[in-house]
Write a structure and sequence with these properties.
It is a single chain. This protein is mainly α. The protein has 12 helices and no strands. α1 runs antiparallel to α2 (27-36), α2 (27-36) runs antiparallel to α3 (41-65) and α3 (41-65) packs antiparallel against α9 (172-196). The two termini are 32 Å apart.
Length: 257
């Protein structure tokens, strides 16, 4: 692999770590990139977890310094998320390469529509209106989110933010900090599943992690001063192009021409 490929991966990791820390969906950049540089979809999916793990260690540390993480609430949310993540990672391992590729492409298109129609504005509108749902409801919600996060990770940040605002009643700043803690809690368990099944490229994972960690540090330090408008447009473009690539639309159009 050429040296500049590593530079690109580090830069993409920085952008992803930055986005993941202040909003979410940064893996929609790094996951297709890892596949584009030659990793099979399942290996790219596993390798990406190394960067997520180190990125969230930095983010959680910085947010804890700002006293934005509620340790008491986190425990009851983390446990069902971990259980869901273990199941989701196991499902991802069992899929053959073609189905995994199509699954990632489909989920990317779903996230494209979610980001395009900006449901985060609706979520913001619920802040202060929710006093907290029943514990059973929360267990189900965070188990399902964990299932998704264990399966693919990309886009899980948005679902966690929604769950933390709508089912717990957090404001967006605290929800964002808690989101990082929950992902940090379940990622080692999902990562172990991929390690056990030998679906990790450790070199690329650590290279990517160096970028993600730097991005997380910058974002968590200046989280309240950063806007998300430009990030949204960048994500939309990258997600759409990546999904079309995974679906072999470019090859189909080329053959038509």
């Amino acid at each position: 692999m050429e040296w500049y490929t590593y530079v690109i991966i580090i830069f993409a990791g920085f952008i992803a770590g930055f986005i993941n820390t202040i909003a979410g969906s940064g893996s929609l950049i790094t996951l297709p990139l890892l596949m584009f540089v030659g990793l099979p979809p399942s290996v790219a999916n596993g390798t990406n977890r190394i960067a997520i793990l180190f990125q969230n260690i930095i983010g959680v540390y910085k947010f804890k310094q700002q006293k934005l993480i509620d340790n008491k609430t986190s425990t009851k949310l983390i446990i069902p998320t971990i259980i869901g993540a273990l199941l989701g990672a196991s499902l991802a391992i069992d899929l053959d390469e073609h189905i995994m590729k199509m699954s990632i492409a489909f989920l990317m298109l779903v996230m494209f529509l979610i980001i395009l129609f900006k449901p985060d504005k609706w979520v913001k509108g619920q802040v202060g209106l929710v006093s907290g749902k029943s514990s059973t409801f929360q267990l189900i919600i965070f188990f399902v989110i964990g299932l998704y996060g264990g399966f693919i990770q990309a886009g899980v940040g948005f679902f966690l933010l929604s769950g933390l605002v709508l089912s717990v009643g957090y404001d967006l700043i605290r929800a964002n900090a808690m989101k990082l803690l929950i992902v940090l809690a379940y990622t080692p368990f999902a990562l172990l599943v991929f390690i056990y099944n030998q679906q990790i490229d450790y070199t690329l994972g650590l290279v990517l992690a160096s970028g993600n960690m730097l991005g997380a540090f910058v974002a968590s330090t200046y989280a309240q001063k950063i806007g998300t408008k430009v990030i949204r447009y960048i994500l939309l473009i990258i997600i759409l192009l990546s999904a079309l690539k995974l679906l072999d639309i470019y090859s189909y159009l080329y053959n038509l021409l």
